[in-house]
Design goal:
Two copies of one chain form a homodimer. The first copy, chain A, is α/β, with parallel strands linked by helices. The first copy, chain A, folds into three domains: 3-268, Alpha-Beta Barrel (TIM Barrel), CATH 3.20.20.150; 281-368 and 385-406, 2,3-Dihydroxybiphenyl 1,2-Dioxygenase, domain 1 (Roll); 419-595, 2,3-Dihydroxybiphenyl 1,2-Dioxygenase, domain 1 (Roll). Helices cover 33% and strands 25% of the residues of chain A. Chain A has 18 helices and 24 strands. In chain A, the strands form three sheets. In chain A, strands 1-2-3-4-5-6-7-8 form an eight-stranded parallel beta barrel, surrounded by seven helices. In chain A, strands 14-15-13-9-12-11-10-16 form an eight-stranded mixed beta sheet. In chain A, α5 (110-126) packs across α6 (145-155), α9 packs across α11 and α11 (250-268) packs parallel to α14 (434-445). Chains A and B meet through α2, α4, α10, α16 and α18 of A and α2, α4, α10, α16 and α18 of B. Chains A, B: Residues 421-561 form the VOC domain. Chains A, B: Pathway: Aromatic compound metabolism; 3,4-dihydroxybenzoate biosynthesis. Chains A, B: It is an enzyme of class 4 (lyase). Chains A, B: It comes from Actinacidiphila oryziradicis.
């Protein structure tokens, strides 16, 4: 189906919005009236610009407070409409969105509303224009889609139909199944918007918090399926009022929007992009660093051994158990020092992983970095992290490890600290792009987003959301700072798993690992909250291990100090614990600030 | 009364919070448990630090999910409480805040709740500790203050009383008049928090949007009056959960908090700071500029004449009618170029204005900048704007104009563009400090805040709120950008009044004033919205004049282009129009971006 976006969903001037929509592959746009009014381009110039960009003018919107009014107001409203029809003629738009009235002038009289909308449609059709009538969730008398349809049915004019908006329908908890009873040709337009589930005034919710389908909690795909089932064949159009999108780069937002629509089409069964290939584990975590001294020391003190050197690039491989860390001194590095720059993901079919990502507009990275390198399938995540799709050590596929010449044997069990693998990675997302990131990991990699959490850093609330493979083999925590200010989120981390946190912690002490000091007050409180027995409490306190539990099991964790932007966490999960120790995050963050 | 603040209201480490509270003049603090847990200071060290700073430990909080539970849970909860009593003993805190349970363990049984709270109070009193029981607005069974009081009354223990929190009471719409029926000595603690009126889930509202009394829409002073009337004599304590305060400088937030409490004390009749002196008009607007060429040209083209030069500083005076603009090339200037740096306010008693401001913690500026200067009374507003209190041309007071040597006569009526005075000024507020600013102008100058508006800039929503003298002689619009990012709000403006916008606009054309081009689409829409007659529509369009109306009258306005951070607006108000043309702001902002 055609894909469209309302200009209000994107930032910038009307010209910038059109360019961004076209670049992301949209077929058409809804022209939001204020975007036209504020533009120095005349309607004719906008028409030409859109045509040049291959964008259809799907609808002009909104026309407000029209129906079910006294005769004198009707006369004014029709005069207003005639002005708009003339603008639309110049613009080349042949549908007008009319939203149900919120005015004090309107009365509760369906017959009057129908009769006046009939008049409006009659005048519109003289211009070749159709009228799509939409029930606003906060309309004064008409605020449900079935009510708007009853009025349209009663008005019975070929140039009058309904506009369905998923937000207005689902935010009120209306049952969308009645959509199937509307003849498809009378559904003139379909607007799709999601929103996080929030208990708040619906007008404020709509104006500030809408998001792209798949980024919130509404069943937008289910609603779209019913409209398509009813025979709707117009565009799928996104109309998103969102404070963050208003501030974000329009091109980036448009790509995010298109990714959302492709994912929705797949869910509805309208399109079949290449299937997602869920990653089966972490192949490696790659740290970009200006020099390796500090990280070498840190990794050594965690029981890692340098096992390889890349044959063509300044990259070292460090291993312990199945945990692999790459230190890359050749790439771009940041002022702050070492940072998590790339993630290797184990997948049964790297090429298929890339096809999936490409179909969802992820930038595909060059397969070979140098002539002698083994080919690598990789894409860029929205935050710039490079995702490599790997099949490590399988005879049927070239392995990235072949590019590394052995530097030393992996540590003997006696030298190791008992670390077995990477448990999860935590990536810092740019301030504006949290929902974009979770949709990306869900749609591209087939990971499931958990609940969004708020973590109290001493200098602001941090939002955190993990995306997880169904079997838990890949977990990525996405963290976003409260704002782009001076306290921008400094930290990413690599979390390593151990089967015995106490033995590992003791070994790390022996190895001189620089661990984050945890305040004694935390342990006093832990004793108040849990009775784990005096011995366990003493052990946790003396080794700086934090503790959490959920209904499935227990979680023990400790941290290193931060090097550059990166620190390491070491965890033991028992009995199927699913979380990340979020309730201890404020302790860790305060300790990190104190330690800096 | 003693003044206190909960540590959760301020950003940073516990040590930073204590320092900020003490520096702002607080007498005591509520220790928020997580702040202690995350601190590397032991309870004993915190006790000493607070004592050094002269801060009392007013209460330790919160203790959750205690009452009306089965016997086994009670045993665990009492064990947990004993741990807390020991921590409080080390800390030197002798009151514990217990909030009503939200746990699934609690049952609806007032007698059981009373009996168990009696037990808790009994154990607490062995440590010399009192228990203040607070009804959370979202408590499972106990969520109103009168309910919490019935339970406390029934428990009948000298170490058990209630804690009243204005947010929990007023957010639910409870009638606070029942507070007077609680014996004052049984009100153990009074927490004060305001919040903007929002229709949303009360828990989310409380956790993210609380603000200092006078910054929101709740009658916090009325509630405090009733508690004091009942005989409460503990501290007035602020407990504010606010996403912005979490990110802001703690010292600045603490000053804002103290200003709020002083204003509340005045409203309640507990304190009598020097009375506010409402300014009677604008004496001048001062622009700091690295050079005067561009602004001289602009002012000349607006019909201003340079009428004076400061005798000791590089400052020029420009006049037209009663509008006076100072150009100062001597002060600090910004990278962006000219900016509005100071405002002269006419007041009947400059020294009294300063006394008022000083009592509300506004920094007082030196009275003489140079030996020969006339003394000037001035303070700094939160955004750094200098506010000068002036008595221009009155024989009973030195006039700032005496420091200026005449440079030319004011323009003859023939040379003038008909500008009569400054209508209003628009100041850009730092991202985090919008509520602080409106409280400052209300409490220090006695200006009344209008509604807060949202203006759609192409790159984000801008919040705007005007503060106005009752007679409209002083109006200041406070604008704040959506975030501190790359699209930080660039613009301040000086709005000048004319009695005849059309004549002024024609004169400005003749003078070659650089006016902001307004899109033709705006005028097409204006014709659709209002039938002002073809002649008026033609005139507005040809002269680039925007139009608005309210129930009181009409508003005509036009803009110059921006020089540095500053532009000028010229307005005509008719028939008592009260607004600022907010509905046209999106047109202006888009035109400004297009023009840059």
């Amino acid at each position: 189906m055609r894909k469209s976006i309302a200009t209000v969903s994107l930032s910038g001037s009307l010209a910038e919005k059109l360019a961004a929509a076209a670049a992301a592959g949209f077929d058409g746009v809804e022209i939001f009236e204020n975007d036209l009014l504020a533009s120095p381009m005349s309607p004719e110039e906008v028409r030409l610009r859109a045509a040049d960009l291959g964008l259809a003018m799907e609808i002009y919107q909104p026309f407000r407070d029209f129906e079910a009014v006294p005769a004198d107001v009707l006369a004014r409203n029709l005069r207003r409409a005639e002005h708009k029809f003339r603008v639309m003629e110049r613009l080349g738009a042949n549908q007008l969105l009319v939203c149900s009235s919120v005015s004090e002038d309107t009365v509760s009289d369906d017959a009057l509303a129908a009769e006046q909308l009939h008049q409006l449609a009659d005048r519109a059709s003289a211009y070749g224009i159709r009228v799509a009538y939409e029930a606003l969730a906060w309309g004064r008398h008409v605020n449900t889609y079935d009510h708007s349809w009853r009025i349209v049915e009663q008005a019975d004019h070929p140039a009058l139909g309904v506009c369905l908006d998923s937000f207005h329908i689902l935010s009120r908890g209306s049952d969308p199944s009645g959509i199937q009873e509307i003849p498809g040709e009378k559904i003139f337009f379909l607007q799709l918007a999601d929103a996080p589930l929030m208990a708040m005034d619906v007008l404020q919710w709509s104006r500030h918090y809408r998001c792209f389908p798949g980024q919130g909690g509404l069943d937008v795909a289910g609603l779209a399926r019913r409209a398509v089932g009813a025979g709707y064949d117009g565009p799928l159009s996104l109309e998103i009022f969102n404070d963050v999108f208003r501030q974000s780069d329009a091109h980036r937002t448009a790509v995010d929007a298109m990714r959302s629509l492709i994912t929705l089409e797949e869910a509805v069964g309208l399109a079949r992009p290449p299937a997602p290939v869920v990653p089966a584990g972490f192949a490696f975590a790659e740290l970009a660093t200006p020099e390796t001294d500090r990280l070498s020391g840190l990794l050594g003190s965690l029981g890692f051994a340098r096992t390889g050197r890349h044959t063509g690039k300044p990259v070292e491989l460090w291993e312990q158990g199945h945990a692999r860390i790459l230190l890359n001194t050749g790439g771009r590095t940041r002022r702050e020092g070492p940072a998590l720059a790339a993630v290797g993901l184990e997948t049964p079919a790297p090429a298929d992983s890339v096809k999936r990502a490409e179909s969802l507009l992820a930038p595909v990275l060059p397969r070979r970095r140098a002539d002698n390198d083994a080919p690598l399938d990789a894409v860029a995540a929205p935050d710039g992290t490079e995702l490599f799709f790997c099949r490590t050590g399988h005879p049927d596929h070239p392995s990235w490890t072949a590019d590394f010449a052995p530097a030393a044997a992996p540590p003997e069990p006696a030298a190791s600290a008992g670390i077995t693998r990477i448990d999860h990675l935590a990536l810092t997302q740019p301030w504006h792009h949290f929902d974009e990131a979770s949709l990306f990991y869900r749609s591209v990699l087939g990971l499931q987003p958990d609940e969004s959490l708020e973590l109290a850093d001493p200098y602001g609330l941090i939002r955190s959301r993990a995306v997880t493979a169904p079997d838990g083999a890949v977990r990525i925590a996405l963290n976003v700072a409260p704002g782009p200010g001076e306290h921008d989120l400094p930290w990413q981390h690599v979390t390593l798993a151990t089967g015995d946190i106490v033995a590992t912690a003791r070994r790390l002490r022996d190895l001189g690992a620089p661990l984050l000091p945890i305040p004694g007050n935390y342990y006093d409180d832990l004793e108040a909250r849990y009775d784990l027995g005096p011995q366990t409490h003493r052990t946790l306190r003396s080794l700086g291990i934090l503790y959490d539990r959920d209904e499935h099991g227990e979680f023990f964790h400790l941290y290193t100090v931060t090097v550059g932007r990166v620190f390491f966490e070491i965890v033991q999960r028992t009995g199927g614990y699913r979380g990340y120790g979020a309730q201890n995050a404020f302790i860790r963050m305060a300790a990190q600030h104190a330690h800096r």
